[in-house]
């Protein structure tokens, strides 16, 4: 029974401190070694096991970090994304798009969105190289995750990221077992959920005791609302060699394939409160082509809505087109070797592959100039007896008179190469220097090759006409043999980073000081192969002849008054030196720490693909690009920890100063170079401060409790300028109520009041709790809950979504005594036990309601509002799992 109790406490990694940490949960092999007490302390699992307290691991780093272990991960829904499993840690809020994790979700960490939070896998950075997005549905099978950690507000000094200003999440994959065997789990659940996971371990083999495993899993289920299904297959393998004396080498491979239908995330607050909203369409029937007449699929298609009713319109909301296919993989190496007793090197090389899109539907005129290259034929009028005089017959009815829907996925194909190398030198027993170098090189190809649909309005190939996928002959070709595409660009993201740490221990190791700095050198090479509408990022991908080349260097096409910037290449470079400082003092059962760090986020690819020339210039002009500046944060925190044999408690207060926050706004200034376009711009500073606390308590040998709370006050510091207007001639010159005047014929800013407003989608309070009970020698149960406060959806805080509480239940029964099969068990999970309905994936914006006056001067200028939209959290869902290892 004692052995099973020990397993119980392990399976409730939350007990007496879910928020655990050790060096093994750090960012990279180099950081693992650097945080170890001695440079030769590294062993086959990463580090010698940190001190356990009632099943939890005591935190040792002098900054805020939270960690969960495989035992807690295994008690969550089978196949669940690791970000959902981390949802109990302070400061982090993750809303899952469905109960099983295959649809992605939305991440917030201390008020920072997921694009500003780093995500790493065995030291490999996973954030998209272009927009820094994190894709929670593409993560490692949870059975293979040894532990996962969250650095709230900070990164590790060697973190290979260009955007993790809000913190970093890293998870570590398990190493192969020393004994040969097979592990398997099989799950069935609501919404036709089926999942199988299989792992085979070789055990130690060969003259050096090499170990390896290979795994495969498959998940399939229906959407919990509306038509459509989700499927995920994953393959993993790892080869591990223990080299002795803390040295090891490892190579791993990962492949993940998702084929998902999207949920409808366009529910507004009024619909939510009324309980009336639709999902994506069940079916869509396009009009049959008739030679000699015009078919307009924009208005003539018949839609079958999710409630069974019918309507006319386009097929853009048909569930078969609102899809999210992805194929991702990586190869990871980890190597650590002590050259001497005091000097160690580590090397983590990697390669990543990504192919993905979010579906796409575009209505195209059959006489579009991008197809026939002859503007004289650009007409929707059907010419009797001369129906193919120009244009391309897209729907096969023998004429070119129609408005036809095409499948136009925006494909993103990434090939990414990386290496992170470190040298750790123990100068003396109490003084250590760590040097690190990172190279991260990403090739980012973004295209949109259009294809037709089959008779059921389904794409023949989920990646459309992408080269190397499916039948490229299904591309839509123009009269000159070129193919229709919605975008065509190639980007390179290149990071070279150097870092250095000094760590010193004083007063019999009670006092620890760490001083570090990292110097990232980041470059983006942009190659735009389409024409760019002047002052925007909107493109025209065409082979039609240029009608006019203007004096300023821009071009125009026949029948089109817009100015376009011809295809171009451009390089952007960013660099900085980012210091960090940590200090901690260990009193025995208690310890205190303080830390300071600086982070940077360089602009995203989409922020930079904007080109402009002065439209009225009479001489050749250079191309001007968006001058978005990098974002910066300065993070301060002070913390306290208390650890005994039955209690693990921690508390921290923090402040984060955030400058150059980037948002998208509409410029409506007619004299501006970017008039009437949506641009990305810096809006100034955001200041946040707060407190986090957690406590884990082993009440008895059979009962444990855990609770945490987070308070966060995150505010915008400046009003936003959203445009400008011209004071009328002879207009008001006396100051308005705010003290400003309006000078006739002069430009005046239009401002919305955001100073002092709360950051969108950031709850002021969050709280979590979990309890575990060893009911009998064989049965253990767990109950956990998370409460999230109200959240604003707009920068001016004029719309608020309600708070919510989600409760989850799990129970596991050891079947060893039942079937005599060691390690066999059955587990039941019920997520959202009380069937709470709550908003997720909020599409935030500037204002939901009209603003009567955005003019700080005497004039009056109103601004219309737009209610924000969101998705709906998953309902109560039950699943049962049978697992064993033999």
UniProtKB/TrEMBL annotation:
Domain of life: Bacteria
Record-annotated TonB-dependent receptor plug domain positions: 59-157
Family matches, as InterPro entries: Beta-barrel_TonB, Beta-barrel_TonB_sf, Plug_dom, Plug_dom_sf, TonB-dep_rcpt-like, TonB_rcpt_CS
Location within or outside the cell: Cell outer membrane
Bilayer topology term: Multi-pass membrane protein
Family, similarity comment: Belongs to the TonB-dependent receptor family.
Protein name according to UniProt: TonB-dependent receptor
Organism encoding this protein: Brevundimonas vitisensis
């Amino acid at each position: 029974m004692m052995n099973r109790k020990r397993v119980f406490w392990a399976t409730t990694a939350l007990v007496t401190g879910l928020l655990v940490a050790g060096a093994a949960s750090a960012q990279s092999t180099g950081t693992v070694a650097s945080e170890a007490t001695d440079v030769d302390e590294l062993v086959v699992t990463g580090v010698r096991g940190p001190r356990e307290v009632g099943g939890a691991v005591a935190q040792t780093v002098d900054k805020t970090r939270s960690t969960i272990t495989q035992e807690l991960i295994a008690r969550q829904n089978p196949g669940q994304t690791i970000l959902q499993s981390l949802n109990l840690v302070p400061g982090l809020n993750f809303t899952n798009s469905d109960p099983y994790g295959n649809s992605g979700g939305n991440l917030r960490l201390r008020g920072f969105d997921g694009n500003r939070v780093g995500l790493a896998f065995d030291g490999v950075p996973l954030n998209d190289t272009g927009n820094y997005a994190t894709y929670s549905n593409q993560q490692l099978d949870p059975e293979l995750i040894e532990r996962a950690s969250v650095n709230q507000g900070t990164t590790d000094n060697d973190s290979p990221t260009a955007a993790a200003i809000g913190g970093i999440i890293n998870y570590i994959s398990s190493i192969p077992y020393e004994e040969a065997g097979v592990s398997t789990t099989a799950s069935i659940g609501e919404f036709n959920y089926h999942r199988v996971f299989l792992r085979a371990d070789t055990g130690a083999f060969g003259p050096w005791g090499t170990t390896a495993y290979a795994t495969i899993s498959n998940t399939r289920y229906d959407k919990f609302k509306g038509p459509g299904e989700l499927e995920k297959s994953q393959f993993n393998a790892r080869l591990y060699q223990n080299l002795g004396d803390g040295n090891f080498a490892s190579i791993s491979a990962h492949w993940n394939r998702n084929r998902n239908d999207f949920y409808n995330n366009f529910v507004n607050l009024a619909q939510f409160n009324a309980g009336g909203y639709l999902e994506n369409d069940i079916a869509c029937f396009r009009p049959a082509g008739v030679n000699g007449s015009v078919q307009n699929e924009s208005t003539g298609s018949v839609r079958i809505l999710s409630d069974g009713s019918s309507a006319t319109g386009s097929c853009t909301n048909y569930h078969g087109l609102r899809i999210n296919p992805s194929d991702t993989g990586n190869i990871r190496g980890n190597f650590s070797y002590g050259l001497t007793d005091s000097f160690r090197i580590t090397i983590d090389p990697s390669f990543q592959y990504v192919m993905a899109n979010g579906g796409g539907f575009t209505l195209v005129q059959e006489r579009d100039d991008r197809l026939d290259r002859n503007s004289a034929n650009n007409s929707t009028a059907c010419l009797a007896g001369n129906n193919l005089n120009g244009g391309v017959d897209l729907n096969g009815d023998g004429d070119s008179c129609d408005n036809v829907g095409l499948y136009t996925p925006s494909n993103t194909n990434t090939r990414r190469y990386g290496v992170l190398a470190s040298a750790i030198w123990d100068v003396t027993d109490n003084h250590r220097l760590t040097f690190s170098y990172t190279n991260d090189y990403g090739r980012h190809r973004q295209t949109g090759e259009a294809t037709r649909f089959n008779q059921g309005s389904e794409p023949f190939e989920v990646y459309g006409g992408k080269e190397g996928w499916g039948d490229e002959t299904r591309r839509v070709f123009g009269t000159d043999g070129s193919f229709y595409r919605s975008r065509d660009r190639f980007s390179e993201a290149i990071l070279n980073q150097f870092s250095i740490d000094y760590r010193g221990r004083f007063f019999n190791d009670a006092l620890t000081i760490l001083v570090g700095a990292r110097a990232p050198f980041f470059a983006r090479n942009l190659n735009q192969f389409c024409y760019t509408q002047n002052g925007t990022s909107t493109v025209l991908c065409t082979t039609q002849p240029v009608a006019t080349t203007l004096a300023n260097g821009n071009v125009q096409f026949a029948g089109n008054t817009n100015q376009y910037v011809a295809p171009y290449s451009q390089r952007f470079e960013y660099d900085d030196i980012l210091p960090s400082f940590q200090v901690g003092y260990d009193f025995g059962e208690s310890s205190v720490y303080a830390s300071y760090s600086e982070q940077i986020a360089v602009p995203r690819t989409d922020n930079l693909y904007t080109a402009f020339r002065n439209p009225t210039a009479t001489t050749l002009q250079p191309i001007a690009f968006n001058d978005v500046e990098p974002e910066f944060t300065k993070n301060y925190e002070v913390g306290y920890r208390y650890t005994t044999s039955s209690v693990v408690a921690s508390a921290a207060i923090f402040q984060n100063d955030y400058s150059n926050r980037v948002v998208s706004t509409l410029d409506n200034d007619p004299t501006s170079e970017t008039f009437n376009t949506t641009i990305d711009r810096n809006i100034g500073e955001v200041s946040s401060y707060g407190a986090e606390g957690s406590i884990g308590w082993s009440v008895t040998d059979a009962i444990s409790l855990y609770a945490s709370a987070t308070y966060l006050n995150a505010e915008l510091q400046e009003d936003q300028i959203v445009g400008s207007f011209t004071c009328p001639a002879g207009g008001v010159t006396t100051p308005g109520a705010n003290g400003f005047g309006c000078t006739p014929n002069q430009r005046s800013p239009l401002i919305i009041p955001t100073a002092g407003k709360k950051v969108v989608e950031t709850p002021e309070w969050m709280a979590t709790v979990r309890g575990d009970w060893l009911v009998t020698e064989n049965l253990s149960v767990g109950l956990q809950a998370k409460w999230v406060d109200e959240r604003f959806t707009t920068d001016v805080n004029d719309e608020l979504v309600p708070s919510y509480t989600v409760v989850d239940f799990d129970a596991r029964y050891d079947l060893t005594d039942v079937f005599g099969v060691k390690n066999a068990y059955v587990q039941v999970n019920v997520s959202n036990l009380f069937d709470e309905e709550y908003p997720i994936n909020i599409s935030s914006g500037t204002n939901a309601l009209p603003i009567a006056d955005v003019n700080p001067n005497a004039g009056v200028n109103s601004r219309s509002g737009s209610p924000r939209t969101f998705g709906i959290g998953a309902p109560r869902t039950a699943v049962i799992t049978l697992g064993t290892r033999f």
